[in-house]
Amino acid sequence: xxxxxxxxxxxxxxxxxxxSLPRVSVGNNASTYRxxxxxxxxxxxxxxxxxxxxxxxxxxxxxxxxxxxxTINVEKSMSVYLVIDRPDVGFTNAEALAVYTGLKTAMTAxxxxxxxxxxxxxx
Length: 123
Prior knowledge:
Elements: E1 7-11, E2 17-21, E3 23-27, E4 30-34, E5 40-47, E6 51-65, E7 73-87, H1 93-119
Antiparallel strand pairs: 1-2, 3-4, 4-5, 5-6, 6-7
């Protein structure tokens, strides 16, 4: 089953952009959503086995001046993804959601201080 189509991603400053991401691909337990300009990609998938692994990934690409030659523009991309990995039995969806919510709460507390520190190299 796929998410609703289209999905939307809003980037705050300094990017300051909202992208509509229509679904472009549906496969076995996987869907992909892409912006019209092709610079943003959202993918979701689940793999089943002894463990269930669910992945939500956002890829963002920008066009920027080359560091060594400012007359040339190059693509630069980055990804952020969430993986939820659990045994096939032993955790209900509600329990898995509670663990995710705990992590999300820690990540977003104090205006994303934990992620800001992580991006700065702290661990």
